[in-house]
Write a structure and sequence with these properties.
2 domains; PH-domain like; four-stranded antiparallel β-sheet; 26% strand; 7 strands; single chain; three-stranded antiparallel β-sheet
Length: 162
């Protein structure tokens, strides 16, 4: 069994930093509205809108449930993707119920492209594109932690004798 050089899933916080933080704030806001929402609304606003405590509590629970479901969906999506690099090959696994496997022999890798936005650079994440032959990439992986290390692992492998 070859030694595993790199083994990672895309990171949720690194892939969606603003979306994750906003969703967590919505979860917190939903809890606050459900628990203490009726007590913080000014009486003059209550008379204009006519919202009772139970309705406000249901709105808070709904916001919390929606945000939790969104965060859980993003997390499951990130966990269903997996990249493993050994000295011989690159193995990309994608899918939850049905799986898609992409194996690339290390000797056939022609180009590795690392793309990082400003926020990905801050979070030390990035997108990896691997080319083997032709102009179409063989593999595109988004949101992996430490993409520079991935590039170095692939470059450090011996070139093919072709």
């Amino acid at each position: 069994m070859p030694e595993v050089l790199y083994d990672a899933h895309p990171s949720l916080l690194r892939t969606r930093p603003f979306g994750t933080l906003l969703t967590m704030l919505l979860m917190l806001g939903g809890i606050l509205v459900a628990v203490v929402g009726d007590q913080v609304i000014p009486p003059e606003f209550k008379s204009q809108v006519r919202v009772d405590g139970q309705t406000l509590q249901m709105i808070g629970i709904g916001v919390f449930a929606f945000a939790t479901l969104q965060l859980l969906t993003w997390w499951v999506t990130a966990r269903t993707d997996h990249l493993e690099i050994t000295a011989d090959e690159i193995l990309w696994t994608h899918g939850l119920l049905s799986k898609q496997y992409t194996e690339i022999n290390m000797a056939s890798v022609r180009t590795v492209r690392v793309t990082q936005t400003l926020f990905q650079r801050i979070m030390n994440a990035g997108d990896i594109t691997i080319y083997t032959a032709g102009d179409t990439p063989e593999l595109v992986v988004r949101g992996l932690p430490d993409p520079g290390q991935i590039r170095e692992f692939i470059k450090a492998q011996p070139a093919s004798g072709v």
